[in-house]
Write a structure and sequence with these properties.
Keywords: Oxidoreductase
Distance between the termini: 61 Å
Family: Belongs to the aldehyde dehydrogenase family.
CATH architecture of the largest domain: 3-Layer(aba) Sandwich
Strand content: 15-25%
Strand order of the largest sheet: 14-15-16-13-12-18-19
EC number: 1.2.1.3
Catalytic activity: an aldehyde + NAD(+) + H2O = a carboxylate + NADH + 2 H(+)
InterPro entries: Ald_DH/histidinol_DH, Ald_DH_C, Ald_DH_CS_CYS, Ald_DH_N, Aldehyde_DH_dom
CATH superfamily of the largest domain: Aldehyde Dehydrogenase, Chain A, domain 1
CATH class of the largest domain: Alpha Beta
CATH topology of the largest domain: Aldehyde Dehydrogenase, Chain A, domain 1
Length: 491
């Protein structure tokens, strides 16, 4: 597949549909050149997609789970075969480095479809032991049997983030389809093209028309129409907390179910008993904020809290690491740090850094716009002399910026870690795993890594506080895209 500019249409009911409101340009964040022209959706486009999904879902929900599993497995096979063809497009619209684009986009998306091909075959019924029930004015007494059964939600609106467009979408549509739902997807406006390209691939895999629909738009109107549509049963959203709150407010008017993966301000706690090998692991983990997709990941440990006995040494090591990173053209093998997604996001991150400087923080590394002729680049930045109440220590920047704060004891570390509105992913680095386990219980975070930033694919993923509502991942993803129905009968 080439990355030359191409004009797309919406993918609705198994075919390309001319958009209601024309097109808008998708821009390569590394070159500032057009990648393609995406359809500008309106309420009529959304309505057509939802109607198609509703019609298709009724039959799909009655399809044998073995057939649903077969289709999802075939999707995984085709994504593995076609993935290399899609990588140039993904890289052009996201600005991801080669390492991220090749290793963390299509292969992970294929893995998710493969996982939920198995998930389609997981038991959906929990039998409950019969219970003797006394007679009442309601009904005669007797031995009453029952079961709890997971049923499909119906039509799910999937609104995805720009950092990993295909991977994030796969994490929603694979469990949704496995449970017998249909989906209408609204990708992030910055990079929707690969999500549109999935339409014919899923169709070729045997997915019935109408089960996967994609409508796109440059602003909020398309997503707002999707959330407000009366025939959408559930909204699955990944993105900022501010947008998530607006979605929740609209969805609540019709009691739509919601799954929200929102912002994060991850803290990495490096304890006093962290030996050389543990501190080295912590260093690499925190540095991933710079090296992994330019910090555009909600789980990144953007705050490093270091026991004062290790603080100076750790800050020195971090500054040396950041200074050595290669920033530039993401299509080059040696590049580690590529651009952020847009000029608006670059300006936003720069404003946060400048605000930290004005509040008295010290910019140890970075803080100045890189000398690149084109592209939306932010230099890897390390900030010290930060207090927990500073904006840069409390809000999600979504860029290659790390703040370092010292602490004296565990109580202070926990207070700092829990002091933001977020609670998505925190990390504890300690030479005593039992101590780290106990400390994890004090962190108001949906996920805690001990001596690693690696994820486990079967864990429930989601956040505390303003980092979201609900959980997906593994079998929990099947729970997220289904509702429990109790069925009762006389034994």
């Amino acid at each position: 597949m080439t990355t030359e500019a191409k004009t797309y249409r919406h993918w609705i009911d198994g075919s390309w549909r001319r958009p209601e409101n024309g097109h808008y340009e998708v821009i390569n964040p590394a070159t500032e050149e057009p990648v393609g022209r995406a359809p500008e959706g309106g309420s009529l486009d959304v309505d057509a997609a939802v109607r198609a999904a509703r019609t298709a879902q009724e039959e799909w929900s009655r399809t044998d789970p073995q057939e649903r599993s077969r289709v999802l497995d075939r999707i995984a096979e085709l994504l593995t075969e076609r993935g290399p063809e899609l990588v140039p497009l993904l890289q052009a619209e996201t600005g991801a480095t080669l390492k991220v684009a090749r290793g963390m986009q299509m292969p992970t998306a294929a893995d998710r479809f493969r996982r939920y091909a198995r998930g389609a075959l997981e038991p959906d019924t929990v039998p409950l032991a019969p219970q003797p029930v006394r007679a009442s004015a309601l009904a005669p007494g007797g031995l009453i049997g029952a079961a709890a059964v997971r049923r499909p939600m119906g039509v799910v609106g999937c609104i995805t983030s720009y950092n990993f467009p295909v991977v994030n979408l796969a994490g929603k549509i694979a469990p949704a389809l496995a449970m017998g739902n249909a989906v209408v997807c609204k990708p992030a406006p910055q990079d929707p093209l690969a999500c549109l390209e999935l339409g014919p691939i899923l169709q070729e895999a045997g997915l019935p028309d109408g089960l996967y629909n994609v409508v796109t738009g440059s602003g909020a109107a398309t997503g707002e129409a999707l959330v407000a549509h009366p025939d959408i049963d559930m909204i699955s959203f990944t993105g900022s907390t501010s947008v998530g709150k607006k979605i929740a407010e609209t969805a609540g008017r019709t009691m739509k179910r919601t799954l929200m993966e929102l912002g994060g301000k991850g803290a990495a706690l490096v304890l006093d008993d962290a030996g050389d090998s543990i501190r080295k692991a912590a260093l690499g983990s925190v540095a991933s904020t710079w090296a992994f997709h330019s910090g555009q990941i909600c789980t990144a440990p953007t705050r490093v809290l270091v026991h004062r006995s290790h603080y100076d040494e750790f800050v020195t090591a971090l500054s040396q690491y950041a200074s050595a990173l290669t920033l530039g053209d993401p299509t080059k093998e040696r590049t580690v740090v590529g651009p952020v997604i847009s000029a608006a996001q670059r300006d936003r991150v720069e404003a946060y850094v400048e605000g930290a400087r004005e509040q008295g923080a010290k910019i140890v590394v970075g803080g100045e716009r890189p000398d690149e002729p084109r592209g939306f680049y932010v230099a890897p930045t390390l900030i010290t002399d930060v207090t927990p109440d500073m904006t840069v220590a409390r809000e999600e920047l979504f860029g290659p910026v790390v703040v370092a704060l010292p602490f004296e004891d565990e109580d202070e570390a926990v207070r700092i870690a829990n002091s933001t509105p977020y609670g998505l992913y925190d990390y504890v680095f300690s030479g005593d795993a039992g101590r780290a386990w106990r400390l994890a219980s004090r962190l108001r975070s949906g996920n805690v890594g001990i001596n690693t930033v690696q994820r486990h694919p079967e864990t429930p993923f989601g956040g505390f506080k303003e980092s979201g509502v609900g959980r997906d991942g593994g079998s929990f993803g099947l729970h997220a895209y289904s509702e429990l129905q109790s069925v009762v009968w006389p034994s």
